[in-house]
Amino acid sequence: MHKTLSAKQLIHNEALRLGFSDIGFSKAEHLPQNEVNLKNWLDNGFHAGMTYMENHLEKRVNPALLVDGAVTVVSVLLNYKPKHEQAQSDAPKLARYAYGKDYHFVIKDKLQLLFDYIKKELYPNLEGRLFTDSAPVLDRAWAAKSGLGWIGKNTNLIHKKLGSYVLIGELIINMELEPDNPINEACGGCTRCIDACPTKALIGPYQLDSNKCISYLTIEHREELPEEFNGKFENWAFGCDICQEACPWNWKARPTSEEEFTPHPDLLQLSKEEWHNMSEDRFRELFRKSAVKRTKYSGLKRNLDFLKDK
Known about the structure:
Blueprint: H1 7-17, E1 22-27, H2 32-43, H3 57-61, E2 72-79, E3 93-94, H4 103-122, E4 128-131, H5 139-145, E5 150-151, E6 157-158, E7 166-173, H6 192-196, E8 202-204, E9 207-208, H7 214-219, E10 236-238, H8 242-245, H9 272-276, H10 280-286, H11 296-307
Parallel strand pairs: 3-10
Antiparallel strand pairs: 1-2, 2-7, 4-7, 5-6, 8-9
């Protein structure tokens, strides 16, 4: 098999076998336009309290400064669109990526297996690092550069078959592999995502002001929630999927087959009352392996209190 298939095709096949939804390859090089865009975003203060985004700017736009000997960026996607939604329509809502096990662990485990496969079967001198949303790497930029989708007007990566309910990871490695070509943006004249945002965080196409973003405010923001958004969260208690729900590319996307993303059996059945009366012990039970732990019990309670009677 190794004689008839290229290394790139073998890596592609192994990634799919491991459960990734798609994979793409790009040359590890400086991203000048992304550097300009990132600087403008930071200069405008659109990163809100995420001051860590100001750090390591050079590394964010040049993987050679992050990983010694970097030649190729291998980008992977993992579909997280759930098979089932929250049952109670009036219950506080949870971003879909947080339904099951924390994706950082799921993706990193698979990436490590992919890295080990490449080193053992294809390139014994392999060196590099693996990432998923936890280091100065522009995940969406690399995924778009490798042809896995385009950056939509809501600033999410959109895959033609999977939509935007995808999580992104990378291997940045010293192995040379033929890069894939980017694909054309396909949002056309649609502005459904911009029109749908209740806090007007999408201040224009491809422009997100995190200061107004429900996802930022309910997860990253550590202070009291701004009173100006009173009644505008549309019942989102952790994260927000409004701009994704509005996107036509997500309407027919298939659900995930990743078993690790299966939620706690009680989670999707929680009523409004059960959410608001949740104890810390119940929080620990429901979200033991979930990304929701990031906001802690106190943070979730703050969010739920903000939603009360709105």
